[in-house]
Each structure stands twice: as C-alpha cells, then as structure tokens.
Amino acid sequence: MTGYSKEVINDLVNGTLPWPQTRRIMSAYKDDDRFFKYLAVLQDRVSWSDPILLPVGDHLFICDSAEGRITRCECGHSFGDYRKNWKLKALINVRNTEESLREIYPNSDIPDPSWMEIREFFCPNCAHLHEVEAAAPGYPIVHDFEPDLEGFYRDWLGRPLKEVA
Amino acid sequence: MLDRTANSLQQRLLESERLMGETGCYDGITELRLRKEDPLKFETLHTKLRAYCVSAREMARRISASPGVREVGEMVVAIYTPEGDAIALSNGIMVHVHTMSRFIKWMIRNGYEQNPGIRDGDIFANNDAFIGTVQVPDVMDVVPIFFEGTLVGWAGAVCHELESGGITPGGDVCLAQERFTEGLFVCAEKIGENDEIRRDYVIRCERNLRMPIYWVLDEKAKVAACIDMRESVKQLIGEIGLGYWQQLSKEYIEEGRRAQLARTRQLTVPGIYRGHTFYGHVTEGKPGFQPLADPNWLYNIPIEMEITSEGKIRLDFDGTQPWGYHSMNCTPAGMDGGMFVTLTQHMNFEGLVNDGAWMATEINIPHGTWTNPDNEMAATATSWALLLPAYGVFQRLLSRGFIARGFVEEAFVGQVNSPMIEMGGTSQYGSGFGMAHFECAAAGSGALAIKDGLDTAYVGWNPESDMGNIEIWEQNMPMVYIGRSIVPNSGGAGKYRGGCAFISTWLINKTDHLRLVTSEHSSRVFDNGGMCGGYPAPTCEKHHAVRNSDIFERAERRQPLAHGPGTDPLVSDFERTYEGEQVWEEGPYITRPHKAGDIFSHAYNGGGGFGDVLERDPIKTAWDVENGFLTREAAGKVFGIILEEDADGYPQADIDATVARRAEMREERLKRAIPVSEWIAKESERVRTSDFAPEVAKMYRSAMKLSPRFAKDFKEFWGLASDFAIAGEK
Ligand SMILES: [Zn+2]
Q: Is ipTM over 0.90?
C-alpha cells in the first residue's frame, strides 16, 4: 500500500515538494492514510491547540473548540458555528467600479461593473483573503461547502466524532 | 447475466435498465464473477480493448485531412455494448464517449432494428445534439459489431469538423439562433452499407459544406477506425468465446461504476458543495443577428453538488436561465458528456474508464433551461460557451473536496471558457474555403492548489491539448502569423496563478474576401473563477484589427512592426504603430470581409488563481515578469512584490521591501473592508429597489420564474417578503 512520511505530505501541502516527486505522487495509487497525516501537518502549522477536524479552504478549518465546532482561520480567528456560512462573519470589500477593478486587472479588459462585481472576503484579524466571489450585483453570497462532518467521520473514516452538547 | 441475445435490442435495452433499477448494479451484475475468477485476465483484456481504441484513433488521424484532427487530435473512439454503453475508449475528446452512447440508444429506442435495419457492415452517422452529440461539428459514426450473426457491440468514432456549412463558416456558429442555421445535419442516418460510405451521402456533404475535404476524409478516417476496432473485437471474441465476452463487457462497466463510487469516497468528503459562474453575451448592433429576443443578456449558472454517503455525485443546475434564441443552448447529451469528460480527468486516473463512471453520478438539468431546452429547434452550435464555465465550477467543487480530504495535488481551479475564431471566403489559393481555427485547444488552465496553472496547454474538452503548428494553420488559411505570444496577466492572480493564455496576430494575405467570425462571450463578466482567495482570470479580451494598414509600407521603410496589441488596455500598440482604420470590438466579431493588408488579433483565455495573492512567491514572480507572464505593474500593484533590476537588468525581487509592502497592503485591506452584515444591510436596499442594469434584472426575473428554490433562497438571503418581485417588465 502507498504511504508517505509526514515530511513529504508537509512539503506537498506547502507546494515545496520537488516537481518530479509530486508528479510521482500524482501518478501513483493514492495513500489511504493521507487524511490523518494531513491533519497532523496542518495542526503543526497552527499556533492553537484545538483539534482540526476538516480543512475547508487554504487557511480555513473546521475545528473543535470551547464554543463548539467552528470554522476558524489559521490565525485563530473564529467565524462561528461551522454549519453557518463563515463568509457572513468575514470582512468584505466589493470591487464594483472600473477604478477598483482596474487595481486587480491593470493591463487587461475588465467587466462592466453594472453586470459583475468582485467580492473579497477577508479574515477580520489577519486580513487573509479567504475567498473571492465574482457575481452579478445583488447575487446572494454563496455558502461554498456544507460538509456532512459526522457522516464523514462515522461512515467513511470509521472513527465517529464525539457527541457534542 | 441473462442471455438476451435472442430478444430484440429494444427489449434488451429496457431489460438492462430495469435490472439496473432493481439491483442498483449495471445490467444486474451484482457480482464481478470473471474478475474474481481471474483478475489478471480481466485486467489484461481491458488493456487490450483500450489498445484497440488508441491504435485505431492514431491510424485514423493519419487518414484525416483536417488540421483539427491531424494536429490537434479532435477525435475520440470507443467500443460499446449492444445496448450502447461504453466499455473502453481512446484518449482525445472524451466528452463524446458518452454522447455516442446516447446516439446508439436513441437508434435502438426508435426502432432502427426494423427500419432502416441494423446489419453487419452498416455505418450510422449523427451530429444532432438532441439525439446525441454536443454541437453540429461533432460528427459521429458507429458500426455494429456482429460475431457469427449475433450483435455483440458497437464501435464508434467522433471527429470535430472544422466546417459544418452553417450561416457563417466554421462549426461553432454563433449567428445560429435556431437549429436551421447551424449547418448540415445528419440525424442518426444510415450513411453506408457493406463497410462503404454511400456516394449520395458524400455528394450531399460535398454540396453543403464550404470545405468538404475535411468532413469527408474525416468520415473515412472514422469508418476505418470503427472497422479496425470491430475486427479486433471479433478476433478477441474468437479467442475468449462469445459467452465470456458478453459477461466480461458488462462486468467492465459495473466495475467502472463501483470504482467511481470508491474513488469518490477515497478522495472527497460527503456533503453539499456550491458555486456559480456567469456568462455575458452582447450582440446589440451586430450585423446578422435576428431580433428574436433581447440582444444582450446575462446568464447565471449556479451549481450545487451533493456527494452522498454512498459516494454518488449529484449535480444540480436548478436556478439557471431559460434556453434562448442563441447558439449556446446545450442538450442533455452535452451536459452528460461534459460531466463524463471532467470525471475522466479528475477521478478516473486509474482502473477501468468507461460509462460505469457516468452511472455513479446523477444530474438535474431542469427542463426549459439552457441545459435541457423544451424546444428541439433550439440551436446548440456554441454550447461549449456555457458548458466550459459550468464544468469549470464542477472542477472547483470537486477540488474543495480534494482539499478537505488532503489530496491537494489533485485540486484544480478548472477549465476555462476560451474564445474561438472561424473563417471563410476566398482562400490564398483563390478557391472558396471555410475553417475553424483550433489553436484555441490550448488555453491556460486554472491554478492548482500546489502550483501555477498550465500555460497555453489545457482545455476541458480534450485533456491532450494542443495548439497545432503555425505552419500547418498557415497552409489552411489566407493569413500569416506576425505574432503569437503569451498574454501577460491572463492567469488569475493568486498564491498560485492561473495558467496564461496566448494571443495571435495575423496579417491577412493573398485574398480580397476573408470573413473572420468569433464565437465568444463578451468582456462583461468573469466566467473563469478563482478559488480559496485566488482571483478570476481576466474577462475575454476585446478584438483589435486594423483595416487597410500600412504594414507593407512600414516593412519597406524598415520600420518596426507591432506584433500584438500590447498591455495598455486603453490604447493598443496597433494604434500607436499602424496607420489605417482601427477596429475595437467586444464579443462576437462579425463584420464585413477583410482583405490582404488588414491585421487582426485574437486572444484566448487563462485560468483562475488559487490562494491569497499576498502569499505569492516573489522569486517566481520575478521569473514571470522576466518571461512575459506578468507585467511589472501587476507584480507591484496586485501581488505587492517590489522588483528591482539585477546587474544584467533582469527583474529581481526585493524581499524586505516586499514584506513591508505586503504588511501595508494587509492594513489597507482591513481599513477598506466592512463587515459582511453591514454590506448586506446596505445592499439589500439596492435589491429591494431593483437598482440593476436591465440584463441583471432580467436574469433574476428568469431565474425566479424557473426555480422556486432560487426565488426562495434569494428572498431569504436579502430579507425580502415572499411576494417580492424584481421591478420591470414581467
Ligand atoms: Zn485570520
């Protein structure tokens, strides 16, 4: 069975594993112990100790915490209950003028701001840009991902999560 | 498995579907008996079938006269069960493995066994998307495989034709607003007997196409590929026995179905995933479009994906827009095909790839929307324009699952919608011609979660992307390249940038009548989104042309030429360099013919970015700037990377200054941004008063009318009363 060291998974996740090695991992059978090694790598990366249960973005995780299961930024900032859309607790910057779109697209053609805007969702604590939506004005904010967290741990990983009050 | 060879095909198809419904397994195959008995033989025989497909396709590419097939590889072949389910396939435009399946089933359901009859040596062709293909230029041929008088399967082949005889030259005919202007239709037609294509069919092609040599020779190439596969399969059955083959072929598909479910459980996380994209079309004031509906429109394409506990993938297009009098509608065959080709690239990277994968998925394409028109007169000539951004979203949704599960190396921001150029008129040889230029089959890809996207090397419909050789294209059209270069900043910004696209610039040559037509989206919206903080790729670039340019005079005076429009979005290098009539056009390019001495440029699209741009590696960025993938301006303004010059004048990142600049940019972000709750309170007023451009308001009215769920979610999100309606015409 395929398996890699935690160091290799760490480099892979950080994008620093040399390409030939990455390429071999892509072409090989998948390593079935990846998930928990991945969690361990991510847990080492964060400065807080609440256990990460599921990554949902590049620096965004569902974790256990004193306030229950929450979505949390890598910096530690909590976006609240993981079942709610974390974006609603974020900071937003909307680019809906030619001038503000031009800042991101200085040398290209840009959309018509009356048809389309860019919405940047930031962490209020560390200012990390977690997600960008390109949407028509008035389009509801998308709830990107609602994982079946309990079902995943119970049925797919065979390691049911502890009941939470 | 029951031996139902004695029954009619139609009965066998119904029985197969009944067994699937009853047992949940393909054709009622609840146990992979042959696989269990001899797994090595099972695998070896599938490899053989796959080899038959790959070698038949390679042989056929050498018969074809079309640079689309020869150079770019716009072809796929597959082997099917008698009921029309794919057992094995070649590489190439795999989207059609499943669309051909629909074509075979359509003939069976429509009584083709009785009339026109299905006999050994027959050749059937189709390019009708409501029967089973994506668009008119995707012409498919299938032949039945008989073994000692018993129908044991089908061999099929598809080529994308470069000319289909529509209202404008090429195949992706954007002027088609109903099927009647899309070109030459072959509707599940028996075009040959005894392994020979009928002369009268060839005559019909010769008299209805602008460049029949492409279509007719491709037809011969496909038939040759089908016969080659048929004979190989017959030989194989001779070796393993008919009964074994019949069980084996079904087990392959059931194995493919189970493998897909297992792969989903292995690589993703169950739950609901959501995303969307948009498409803007601008035809106002353009010649040729009939006034059948509003000239400009905006489409929303929301997609919800559910991954069930079993590992089934359910895609739901509820909430999208109605079909329209334009060429971007799609049929269920096209929607299925798009899903199939995406799965083959993302999840079926090992094991048996066949229609089983598709059976492990479900798709909801609401009747009456562009995904499933309730009017079969709707045109589908450019359905890729909506399919590509839609399945780009699907790739991002799957990628969210890969990231959650830890398989970051598989996460991919996705395929892009990229424009295409077609042409016709008088060739450089003085004859009539028509051709779709297929260098578009090498766009930029979306970024990956661990590295930049592929530059000029990926499209969703053909994982083996290729732009073809300039010299070959020049042989086929009255234009010569004066430039083909990377479009800087065409990949969406991010920690990992999207792959960049390229731009071609041509000098029209040796013709006084060249019609250039492009089949694309406008610049009004982003349709190639980013992920996890990455920005979308730029919109489609506008066209630049110079009529009656002074290029020959400049060349004579030994003055420099402009080889592309440059990086100033407000004034092009053409305007700075050439005398002549400057043209600047958004969206589909449909104008009066060009002639020798005119200059035309056409840019393709890059992919979306991944991750926060302020995490971008400054050293990679310096390399990007040095090599023309990024402008210095974007490096500083967008990425916060301060570049200096080294002793040789090459850009070099100043790491300390970059760190300081980025700290400032983070401060600026926090200063400028507001809490989402505040924004919603303010924005809901705008929604309440329907303060929208007419196209946006219309999009909301249509989506709410077609989808009660969209209407409910929309009103709930903005806190509107249940009887709220967007103001304006009903
Ligand atoms: Zn943070």
A: yes
